[in-house]
Each structure stands twice: as C-alpha cells, then as structure tokens.
Amino acid sequence: MEADNHDNTAAGGGGGSEAECLTPNDKEDEMEESEANAECGPVNEAGEAHHSEKNNESTSGESEIKSVPPATNRQVMPKLTLVLIGDTNSMEIGSKNILYDHDHDEQAVVEQFSFKLYDLCGRHISVINILGRENICKLPLNQEIHAFVLLVPYGLHKSQYSSGVQWLEKAFGRGSLAYLLTVVTHKPNEKCESALTELKANSAFDEKRYHTCTRSMTDEKEIVALLEKIDVMVSENDPHGYSELLCKEMKEQKEHLDQKSHKEEWMDFSVFQQDQTGDPGPAVEELEESAADTEVKCDPVTEPGDVEHSETSVPSAAEEKSTLHMDMSGNKQPVERAEEINRKTQYQRETEMLLGRLHLQDKHKHKFSPADFLKVGPPVKQDQDTCEKDLADTFLQRLMMLDYRGRYIPVRQDSAAGSYSTPVPVFNTPETDDSDLYALLSTCVDSHQSKQTHVHPMDVQMAVFHCSDSFFKQNMITKLSQCQYALPMLVPDLVTKDIDCPLWTFRQIRKTWKITQIRDNSNIVTMKNMPICKAETAMVLFLRLGSLSLSKSQLMNTLINERHNTFFHRNCPGSTKSRYLMDGVAEIAWYCPAGKLNDTFSDCVAFCNLHGDALLFKKQRDILIEKSSVCVVLVPTIEKSQSSAGVISDLFKSQKPLIILIADDDRGTSQLKEGKYKIGLKDSSQSSISDELKGIIRNILSGPHASFQLETMAEVSGIRVDENDEVCQKGKSAAMKTVDLVSGMDVSKIKDTFLPCQGQLWHKWCIINKELHHLKGHIEKEKCEKQQKLMEIRQDQCSASCSQLMKSFIESLSSLSSTEKEYFLKWTQILIDALSTDDLCLILQKYDEKWSEVLALKKKHAEEEEASNKSDQLQCKQRELDQISTKLQAATFGLEHIFREMGQIYEAHASLENKQPKLGQTDWSRYPALAAELMISGQPMELMDGDAGHVPVTWISSLLKEVIQKLGDKKVFVLSVLGVQSSGKSTMLNAMFGLQFAVSAGRCTKGAFMQLVRVSEEIKKDFKFDYILVVDTEGLRALELAGNTTLHRDNELATFVIGLGNMTLINIFGENPAEMQDVLQIVVQAFMRMKRVKLSPSCVFVHQNVTDVAAAEKNMDGKRRLQEKLDKMVRLAAKEEGCDAQCFSDVIAFDVQNDVKYFVQLWEGSPPMAPPNPGYSESIQELKNFILSKASQSPGITLSQFESKIQDLWNALMNEHFVFSFKNTLEIAVYRKLEVQYGNWTWALRSSMLTIENQLYTRIENGKLDKVELSYIFQEMNKTYGEIKKEMATYFDEDNNKEILVQWRGQFEIKIKELHDELVRGVKRKLDEVIQQSSACEKLDKKTEFENKLLQKSKELAHQLKDKAEDEEELEKQFNSVWNSWVTELIAGVKPIEDIDCEEDQTAILQELGVEWSLINESRSSGSYKNISEVGDYKHYVTHTKSLYKLTELVKEKVRPYLRHEEQQLIRSLIDEVEKQSLDTIKSKPVVTRGYRSAYLQEVANNVKEKVSEFESKRKYTLKKTFLVDLLLYIFDRAGGWLSESHKKFQMNNDSRSYIESKKIQHYDIFKSFCKGSSSAVVLGKLICEKLKSSAVEVVCNKTAIDLAGKMRCSFPTFNGNRLDLEKNVLKSLAEKEDFDGFITYIRHPRRQVETFIKETAQNYIFKENKDEALSILQKNIDHIKKLVSQALLAATEKTKTKCGGIDMWMEEFSSLLKDELTFAVCCQNFSDINNFDFLKEEMEKGLASITEEMSRISLDKMKEFRMKPDEILIEQLCKCCWVTCPFCAAVCTNTMDNHSPDDHSVPFHQPAAVNGVHVINSVELCIDFCTTSVASDRSFYPDSKHPEKLIRYKQYRTAGPRYANWRITHDESKLKYWIWFVCRFQKQLEDHYNLRFQGRGEIPTQWKTVSKDDAIKSLDEM
Length: 1919
Description:
Layout: H1 17-20, H2 24-37, E1 64-65, E2 80-86, E3 108-109, E4 111-113, H3 115-121, E5 125-129, E6 147-153, H4 157-172, E7 180-186, H5 194-199, E8 210-214, H6 220-236, H7 244-277, H8 281-293, H9 317-322, H10 333-357, H11 370-373, E9 375-376, H12 391-400, H13 435-445, H14 457-466, H15 470-482, E10 487-492, E11 499-501, E12 510-519, E13 522-531, E14 536-544, H16 552-560, E15 586-591, E16 605-610, H17 618-627, E17 630-635, H18 645-653, E18 658-662, E19 669-673, E20 676-680, H19 686-702, E21 708-709, E22 720-721, H20 726-739, H21 747-754, H22 760-771, H23 779-799, H24 804-815, H25 818-863, H26 868-891, H27 895-912, H28 927-936, E23 941-945, H29 953-967, E24 971-979, H30 985-993, E25 1007-1015, H31 1017-1020, E26 1027-1033, H32 1047-1060, E27 1063-1069, H33 1073-1092, E28 1098-1104, H34 1112-1137, H35 1144-1147, E29 1156-1158, H36 1174-1191, E30 1197-1198, H37 1199-1213, H38 1218-1221, H39 1225-1261, H40 1270-1294, H41 1298-1340, H42 1343-1360, H43 1368-1386, H44 1398-1408, H45 1413-1422, E31 1438-1440, H46 1447-1454, H47 1461-1483, H48 1487-1490, H49 1494-1513, ...
C-alpha cells in the first residue's frame, strides 16, 4: 500500500526485479542515479527537498546532532523519513535489523538510509535513531519527518507509552503527536495481545497507528505491515510531513505559553486578593509593568471566574493596549503582524485539537448532512455518560429528539495517561514559618499544570454547527429553537475569523405569540404566527465591556424564562473555564408572550447576546448596536482610563436607549437622561436586578423604538451571509421565479387558478369514482356513462395541466443539481408560507372564536330543555363555522399541493394513454421519477389526498415503481400512526426519526404522508429490512371536517392505515373517556377487518399528555381500564362485522402490559416559551427502542408488495363491505406462482408413476408378475416423493415471500401426499385389472398351444416340400392350401366372438320404456339429442301442468312464454348429473374381460328414467317424452365409444380365429425358412425378432408419449403455467377461431372444451410445430431399446456359453433381462437342437438391425394405437383442478387444485350474466351486468327458484346459500374486454341460442362496441 506515492512499488511490496538482484555497491550507485532524477513524493512539499542546515554545536548538555549522507558523497533525497524514539532496550541494533541496519552511535544522532528497507520495498527511507536521547530538543533536518516511531518494550508499554508521548509533545510540540506511530516490541514467541487493550485505555491512543514487532526487527512481514501503516498515516496527515517550520512554531508557542502562564498566575492571585480586600494590590501593577515591557503580545487573560471570557486565542483589553508599544527598533508593524499570525495560528491549533477530541476532523471538510441523521441508528444513550469521541453524535441525536438536556451530557473521563495531561506537580518545600503560605502560593502559580478539562458544552454545539452543511445547520437550529435555546446569529469563521450570518438556518423557524393591547378599557389579544426571519420585533442587545463576575447570560435568562437556560452560562452543568468557539458569537432568542396577564412583555422581543468581551469584537459590536432597539451594557467600573470608556461615550451620544450595569456601583437604578439608564450591581441580588431591567425595558418599548427584522441582516456590509452562496441563490431565484407567478393574489384563489387539476375536477372525479361502487338500475349502462364522465374529467385535467406555475416548478425540478434542487424546494415552501401567513393567522383566529361560540351554545342547549330558537342560532353558527373551515382549506397552500398537482397531471395523462407531451406541456411521464428522487432524499410524499379523501392509486403506484427502479425492491417495515387531531402524532414521529412532517396548528397533516427512513449499517444486521417507511395521517375527528364528514371517513382512514402498517401507533391524547371511546371503536373495527382478510399488523397504544406518568399503580389501573374498553369495543364491532370475538386479543396479538406506553406532556410549562419536556424525549426513545425490538422480529415487506397492498386496500375500501371486497393482489400473485410449482411437483410424481406403471405392466404381460404389492409401488416412488418433499420444503422456507406462503404450506403438503397416494393406488388398481384380465384369458387362452402346433405343422410341411424351395409361388400355394385346414382343425369347438350392435339394443331398450319407434327415429335423424347439454332454452321440452298452479300463477303463465333462468339451470344440472352417473355406471362394467352385455344399457336407461321422474316430482311442470328420448340417446352416444373400444379389446384378447389369422404371415416366413434349409437358429432368430418388433414398437410409442407430454408440460408455454394460464390460452384459441359452438361448450362444459383444446394443441405441437423434435425423441427411445436388446443378447449368450447351457437357459436369461422393458414369449421345444449361440446371436443382430431400421420409419400416428397417449397424459395432469362455476355468470374457478378448501373459489375474469343466459325476471331482456359490478351496486337478486320472493342484496351475496358462500367476487372497475367483445361479436347467436333479446335493460352500451378482437385477446394478458 502506498499513500499518494508515485513509485511503482508499495511499502512492503516487491521493489522490482532489478532492485532485488543488485550488489551493495550497485545499490548505492542506483540510489544516487535514481534519486538524482526523482520527483518528490506527495509527502514532501516542492522546494523542501533540498532543505539543509549546518550542524550546530551542542550546548548545555545537549547531544551533538549530525546529518550524515549516504556512502556516496552526493545528497540523496529520501522518500520517507522516520524518527525512532523510545527506550534503547526496545530494539536490537545490528546488521540484520531491517528497520535500522547501522551501528548505534552513542555520541550522535545519525540520519541513515536503510539498505535493507531498500531491498525489501525498493524505496529510499531515511531512519533517524534517537532512542534513549531524552535531552534532544532540536533536529537540523534536511527534510520533513513523516513519522515518529515510538518503540516500547512489552511489559513496560503502559508507562513508557505515557512518558514517551509527554516527552514528544514537550520536545517537538503538540503538533508532532499527529505523526506518532506506536510499536510494541517483544521477544520471539512472546504473546502481547493484551498490550492493545491496555493502551486503548488512553484517550489519545489511536488503534490504527499501532503495531507489534519482534525486537530483532528481522521479520520481513512485520516490517512490511509497519511500512503500510506508516503510509496510511502519511496519507491521512495534512501536511504529510512534520517540518522544521512547524517545530519552530511549536517552540515559540511553548515559550509564549510559559509567559502567559506566568502572567496568569499573578493575575489569578491578584484577583483573589482584590476580591478579599477591594484593593488591586501590587500584583496588578506588576502585571501592567511587565505587559508594557513585553516584546511579544501575550494571549488574553482569563476573567476571574467568568467562563464567558476564557478564549485564549483573542487578546484582552490590557493586552490590546500593549500592542501599541514599539519594539526595540521602534517599528511596531512587524510586532502587530507577528502577534496576529501567532494568535490565528494558536486559534487554529486549538480548534483542530477540539475537533480532534470530538472526532470531527473529517466533518470539517465532509459536513454533516440531514441524510446522516435521517436513518435509524443505535439507541441514544440517555442516562449514562459519554466519552468525548461520541459527544457530538450523542448531542445531535438527543437534540433531534427534542431533549434539551443534550447540551448537558456527562463526559466519561478517560485515564490520565491518555488525555495529554501533565502529571500533578509535587512541591518539596523546606519547613519554615512561611512554608504553608509558600506552598499555597506555589500551587497557585503552577495551577496551569492541572489536567485537561472536558469539552465545553457550547464548544460541542458550535463544533457541530461548523461541521454541518447548510441544510443540517437549518435542522439543528430549528431543533434548538424548539428547545427554547438561543441561536447563533453572528459566527466567526473557524479559519478566516470573518463574520458569518447564518440567516438560512433561521428560515424554517416560525414563532407564535399573542399581543395584548388595551382598547376601550379592555384587553384585546391578537395572535401572530410567522417565520421569525420576517418578524419585526424590538431587539434588546446585551454587551460586556471588560471582565466582571456577574454572568450576563444568566441575567438574560431571567428576563426570558427564569426556569430555563435559554443562554448557556457559567453555572450551567458541564461548564468549564476553557472555551474556544463561543467568543465573538452573537446569539439571539425571542420572548413570545402568551397573551396572559403575567407576560413579561406584551409583544414579541428579541434578545441578543454577544459572547466574550465586546471590546475585542468591534465589528460584531457595531453591527448589533446598529440593529438593536435597546442596548444593555455590563461593565466592571466606569473610569476614563478604562478602554471601555470610549465605547460607552459613543453609546451615550447615540439615540439608542442605553442601560448600563456597573459591577462596582452600589447606587441602585437611575435615569441619567431620556433613554439612558444606569443600574448599580454591587450589593444587589440578581432577582432585583432582573426586575429593574424588565421594568426599564418595558418602559422603553412602550414608546417609539427601532424594530429589528432578522432578514435585514443580509443587507449589512462586512459580514458573510450564507444565503448569498451561489448555490443557495440559484435555488432561491428558481423558487422566486415560480412563486412570483402567484404573489399578490388572494391566497384562497391560488390553487383554483394555478393548480386546477386537484381542485373541483379532482374532487368531482373522486365522487363519481365512489359512485361506481353504488350503482343502481341499468348498472352496466350507468357504469359506462360514469366511466365516460371520468374520462372527460381526465381530459379536462389534461387540458388544464399546463399552468405557468407547474411548468416553472417542473422545469426547475428537472434542471437543477441535487443541492440546488434542495434549496429550491426549501425556498419554494418558505416563499409560499410567506404568502399565506397573515391570512391563515386571521382565519385560524376567527375559527377559534367561532368554535368557542358553538361550544358555548351547545353547553346552553344541554342545560335548557326547550331551546328551539337557540337551536336555529346554533345551526347558523355551525354554518358560519363550516364556511370558515372551507376558507381555511382554500387558504392552505404548500409544497404538498404542488406535488399533488403533479400526481393529478400524471394520472390524467396516464389514464388517457397520452404517450408524448403536447406542445407547451411538460413531460408528464417523468413526474414519478422526479418525485421518487425527492422521496429517497427524505421528502415526505402524499399517500392520501386529505382534501378529497382519496388515494391517487395510479400516481402512487408509478412513484413507488420508480423508487424501486432506483433503490431496488428493498424491504421496508411500515410504521403508521393513528389518533385524534392535534394529539402530537407528527411531533412524535419527527422527534423519533428526525422527520419533517408538518406540525404547526395552521398546517396540520391532511390525509396521509409517507417517508422513507434508512436503517443504518451499524444495526442493519439485526433487521430483515432496509428501511422504515413511516406513514403519518390526519387526525380522526378533525374539527374542520366536522361539518362535511362522517364516521365513515374515519373508519376508512383507520382501515387503510392499519392495513398498510406492519405496526400502527394508536395515539391517544389526554384522559377524556368519551374521546378515547370514539377512537377505540374506530381502531377496533379496523383491526377486526384486518383479521378477517388475513392481515396481521401489530399495534402499540401511546397515551400522551398523561399527568402522573411515574405512578406505576395509576398506570396499571389505566391499562386495566383500556383493556376493558377494548374488549367492550370488540364485542360491539363483532356484531357489526358479523364475526365471533369476545376480547381484543381474539382480534390481534396484544399484550396490555407491554403494548401500552405512557407519555408525559410535550411541554415543560406553558407554551409558547416552554421548552419540550425531557421526560417526553425519554418516552420517545423508549418507544423507539420498543418499536425496533418488535420490528426486528418482522420480515417487513418489499416496496412492490407495499405498492400492491395500497391498491388492494383502497379498492376494497371503495366498496361498502370491505371484507367481502378485499382482494390481496400480492397474495394472489404469490399463490399463482405456487400453483406453477405445484404443477411441477405433481408432474414429477405423475411421470415417475407412469414409468413404474410401464415396467410393472411389461412384467405382467411377460408372466413374471402375478400380484402387485402396494408397498412395492410406495417403495419405488419413495425416492421421487422424497425429492419433491425436499423441493417443497426449500421453496416454502427460502422463497422471498415465505411469510405469505406459510399459510398454504400444510394444505399443499397434504395435497401432494394425497396425489402421491392416489397415483399409487390408481396404478395398483390398473395393474390388478391387467392381472385379472391375464388370468381370465389364461383359462380360455390356447395361444401358446396354437403357436406350437402351427410351428410344428409348418416345419413338417417344409420338410415335405424341401425340393420346391426355389419356387416361391408353389410354396405359397401349398401353404395357403393347408392353412385353412390347420385353422379349422385348431379352433374346432371354439365359439367365435361376434361384433356388437349398440344401436339396435338402444332402440329395443327405449321401446321397452314405452317410447314410440317414430319418436326414436325422428330424434336420431335430426341429431338434436347430441347437443342437449348445451341447449340455450329448454322450454320446448317442458309441458306446464296447470293443476299444480294457482290462478295467479296461471295468469302469469299466459304472459310468460319462457322458463325462468333458474329453471333452465336446474334442467342443465339434471342432464349433467345423469350423464356423469350413467358413464360411471357403464365404465364400472367388466366389458374388457367379459365382453359387452345389453343389460348394461338397460340398467342405465332405468336409472335415467327414475332421475327424470324424481326431478319432475319437485317441479311445477313436466318434461316431455322427447326430453327423455334425447337424454337417453345422448347418454348412449357418450357411452357408445367406450363400449365399442372395450369390446374390441375383449375380442382381440379372446377370439381364437382372429388371433390365428393374425399369425399367418409370421408362420409362412418360418415355413419358407425351413424349406430353404435354414437352421433352427435362423428360424428362432427371426421368430424372436418378430416378437420383439411388436413389443418394441409399443414400448417406444408409450415412452415417447410420456416424454412428449413431459416436454410439453415443462417447456411449452401453453401447458407449463398454472390453471389460469391454461384458461387464458383456451379463451385466446376460441377468440381466434370465432367458434360460437366452442364458446357454448366452454360456457356449459368448460372441462370438455379444455380437453378438446389440449388434444388439438398437443396434436399441433407433435405433428406440425415441433415435429422434428418429436421425431428425435422417438428416435432416442428406439436407440435405447436397440441398446437394451443388444446388451441382453450379449449377456445371455456369454452366460449360456460359460455355463454350457442349452437353448432353454439362453431364452430364460434373455427374457429375464428384458422383462421390465419388452413383452415377448417364445416356446423353445421345437428348437432344442440349437447349440451354436454365437451364430444365434449373429442372426439376432441382423434381425435387430432390420427391426431398428423399420422402427425408424414409424409414423408419430402410431402412438394413437397404444396405451399411452400424450394428450391423455396431459389431460390427466392439467385437468385435475377445480371446475366449479360462478353462480352468477358461469365463469369457471381457476384454482389449480381440485379441492382447495378453505380457500374460496375465484376467477379473475367474470362474464356478463347474458353469457350464461341470465335475464331480467318476467321479461325477455338479457342481463348484461358483470357480477363484479353487481356486487358493488345497490341492487338485489333471487338466489333460489324455490323461494322466488326472497331477495338478497348483491353486496351480501355470500349469505344467499352454499353456492354463493364459497365464491370470492370482488369489485372490478376494469371490465374484461374479452367478454364484452364476445357479447358484441355473437349478439345475434346468443339471442337465438337463449331465445332472449339484448334490449331494454339488457341493451348493449355503445362503448362496448368499440372493443376489437385484438383488444379482447390483449386484455387476457393483463390478468
């Protein structure tokens, strides 16, 4: 590592190859050559490299110091110079020592280059060894010293470190300590870990500048590490090296301090004498005499006991006089200049030392900013003391929390060794009579040697002030003002001593006071509230001239607030005599009257205090005198000889009122002339002085007097005003450019004129939007009309969105730099506040008066029973109050309204999808990004518009997305607050987190605001989130809303805020039971709603303004009463919300002992002069710690989750029933992802089970397995099931949304287990059937016998015709001639299985049921029966039985030519139910094993007839016979396919003739082979290959089917999502085809249509789109089979040969190796002569090659012939889900699980009711309402045809019965365009299908007809 060094080698790094291979002589030459051309490193200043000094002769015992050059005689400039100091025993000197490889010269200190260091790192390092030379005090250096290396041996390190530091400071000055690095040396193998801990006890010790090393210094690694630390230290120091010039300055300082100490000793003693005798004494005379003779000016004398004048860098009056003396040559200028330089140098050194003690060195350059404190850090220390390095940080943190005691923080004293302290001197005096007095005098003289005092509290404050940027200074000064402390108004610059006026820091401060004036013998009180910068007040200036014992600051405090130290004084806790930064500082404070009789002053008065001796600060003194109204001067005495006489004389001559306080005057108070007063202080108490002053000042201010306005300080010449900085001015000019546009206007009209989008337009939009949730009548038409109005309003907003104000504001926000932007925003708010200050004060005062009148009238009403006329009066007053409230809202104008306008402009354009801004408009699309930057920087953002009571969801969503874009999707802990108005919510949050929420009475929070607070790195490890997102809200029961709001508004706000928060602070103010009950009722109801929608926030009750917070018994009683109230509120709310809860803990996890906090009142006394109560800040800290403790257990939520939660909560709140309407978007998204994973897990199980099924099926077919054990299948599945369980556990434990997923974990684990068990049992059932079929077939089966006989006959015939082997035709002729006879012979006596004729059986069955043949024939020929389940209108099947109707109903029948929708649905349900039962019955019959029987259809027909009769018995109508015919034919048709296929299988397996005929070609080939003389091996090979071929084709096709299904399931988008994705693809397919019949099938039988879609899509995938891929999968399986057979062939041949077995052994081995894969059986009884198995193997391989080639030409269509089919596998996988349809619109539930209880059914895209044939009762008008609209309307419906009189409100649809109770239908403003397009596209078909019409209330809205098919398909993707 190398600090700013231009060498290419680091200290401790290799020095380069050339340096490493040089000889010693070569090294010296290279060093000379390289140094001759070397540049100076950054540690050396230019021009200092060649500095040299002649050797001085040593004097007075000092060692001789020589500068010894290297071995050559040329001067070489070292890159680094080190000085070794300490004990000689701490290092072993010798040639092996790397650090110092020279002999130790006892006589001289030698400056040597270290060759070994050069070898090590290639750098020229000079080492000066002064180990053990304590008498060295001067080094004639050729260059700067970069490090003093203090070597201390382990064991003596503590004592030698302390003495070494003291010696270094004494010898080279305090500045040398910055260049000190401590090295503890130790013996080899000696452990010295404890050294660091022990040295850290010293406050001056720096751990970064510490190292350990062996004493021999021979370890390269240790030396490299040492050099690296030295480099770091050099880079950090400024300047990098300690030069001779600095050393000289330190020496001069030492001498100077010695002189100063000498004078101070005598001064202190003389003062002591003066205080005792009143006589100045000879000591003073001596001091004056010595001062007159002094050449060099001394530092100021400390005032006797006056801490206000203890600065040592500024000359006293006496010393200022001495500067006029000439030096020896008569030239005074050099002396003055030298003194000035010396004074500044010393001041800077002391300042640096102070900043160093406070660890603020870096902060002087890199200032504190608000961001440093806008974060959650470690807890603030309250009770314990603090070490110096933490002093500044603790002060600031406590100040931010409004703890005024932060100025009095106890400091923990470090050990004496570490505080640069001087040892306490011991005086050895001879025992004489005067020895005691001598000892006393000596002690007084040497008092300067006492230990260093702790840092002065005001030095801490001012140090932090100087180390802060302008924005943090502003925050700091604002907090100091809130703590009722004086504020710095004029501040000397730390470096230049120029005077700064931090005017900017005052800009946020507002003061409120009440002016009392007497008019007509009555007191008139007027309230004022304004920025303090603009307040014109009297200013009373206090100055001190010279030194005196009375504390000026303490006296001023008695005038302002006797119980609070507004100005810090000497008697305050923590005060010390050493103070560096306060002299010359002018502080200001304001007295603000409360409008009471005991006010000290009747108007606001500013008090200004110039710290220090005003004689020394002429510039500040003159400015303040000029600005003051009254000048109060404190002097020790008045004599013409005094230096203060001239100043006092000038003040007497001026017109300014003057009050002189004289310390040595005992003549009381007297008026010297008009406006000039004198008060003698001697023998007067402070209280009497204070009273005299108050009276005089009141008297002066009662007459004409000059006024002071802080803002005018900017006009004063000779001082620097922070607001004049270029960046501040740039921000101000931009703000003025914006605000000037509205200046001069009536404030109440500004928003309407320049911010039109948020006024009436936005409010109207909100009202209409809320009306959308309360529709009546023709709701879809009304809905369209209202949505059209909303769009029109948005259009109007767009048109009005280009006001000059917004254009100017956005332009500045976009173009300014970040700092300029911050100034711009602050200035904008300041200037806006200035516009409305007077108006708001006036309105608030009127409001207060009117509210008092209303309360008085209400009180009278309560007392009087009959007060009708007074009631009218009350209403009148109430109306007046409402008018004032409206005016108050209009006049409230702030930055938040401009941001609100930005949001509305964005929402308007975004809703109209304006992509580009029009000419003259700003780029609205950038607004969210601009706002996001501000929110990240700490600006609060409005979440809910308090005026409109609405959340701009689009704007907030876009804003948060931009925040996510910039920060990442960070996790946040949402902390919200809720409570009554003006209960201190915002104040609490501001104090807790350093926020900037509005808190003044005139600008209470409206709506809700959010602000990000970062979690600091120090504590981030303890939390699972990155930010706390604080949500501040408007008060419940707001007074200004009393006239136009209801309890609903409060409930809405409470529900929204509590739902958003991970934790909510419930703020209760005072102990008013009625008020508390109102708040608790609102809160409890909100928490109950959260529980019902599965949100679980926590809460803390904060009880503010409690009187006796310390009384534990009272608190316990309070908690008990709170618990009782909460429980009572729960029981009341439970009835309203319809849930079962008895106590608050049933609703939310709540511990009354811990979750209730008591706060004392905020103010310590009566405002406006009361400071904050320290107990309040303690409570804030305790609450903050408690919140963080709870938050550490919370996972928080991501910003994206927070964004979706806002939308969900607000959308639900728009509806009347929050619980029914709440839709958790985040949960839905997480659940959909889980469904995809569930699909993957279930497919893994299913595909594994299919493989196992295939293996076991093959074994059964091969006869190798006759029983399937359940345990075996479970065992086979165990590995896959175990892996899936692990995957599930990982997913649920590690997913980002694991907190949400946990609620479904158990449910999905159970579902996976159920599926696993179901698959296992299902496979066992299938295989048992196969085994049963095989067993049944074996009893009848003679296949093997047939084959053996045919083989034998073929062989015999071939033997007879051997001579005709060449004549192919003859052979075929002979074979055919005998074949039929063979077949007849073999199957003699076996009855053939005939084909079935289902149609004939069906006709016979129907006729047996009494159905005429003509009716059957008519139905068959028309084919109408095939669509009976999808008929739109069943009225032609119905005959009304009049006897079942009453007369009134008969009348209705005559005018009702239709069946009610409910009846139509019941008939459909009957058809579906009968169909399912019938098919289940048919499929349960053993057709495959025993064949078809007509009795099966007979049984089904009888059951159907019974079901129809049962249905008719419950209806008031009968079904025609045609219905029964069509229904039975429909069921027969549905069952016919399965019966035919099953019977065909039975026929194949059991018909002997068919089987033998299928073997004809095979046996002809065998016959030919035998004829041609082929051996048995050749024939057997062909026979086996032929058997393998059919089996291999089946196996390959089955395996390919599984693989293709898996491929499509896992990688094809149509099938690899969840159920919802599949549904969307089905709908897209239907839309693209525009197939109405397909739509009807989907509406009536969604599963049937989905199955059709899966089949079509799978076919398209396999045979068209991905045919090549499918063929490659087929080929892969063919290759696998080929490889398998080849391996089995080789293994069987080798084993048979090895064991010398026969053909039976070979066949047994070969078939066993293939038993799990291929099915074949060959009898070997005709091939016993085979013994050459190699030959058999060769023949088999030939046949296998032929088979493989033939199989490669197989078509993919071949898969259709076998057991496994890709589409069927996919259907089995994808259709095992929920198929329940919506009771209103028939939309199918899209849950991936079939039984997903307790979760409700849901679908994201409901349909218009017309799609399901719903119509208006007693009319033919189709109902086009979406049920998602209906559930938010005020309409009702008939849920049950049995009770047509029972009406249920749509909003309470869940109460309508079981069909409705389990459906979650939430209001959705955005209609799904898909179904709108469908209704418009197929309007005519739908009308014909249902025999109803889109007319009247069912008329299709015009807006619907604009939706295109593309829009419809696109809308699906948005779901």
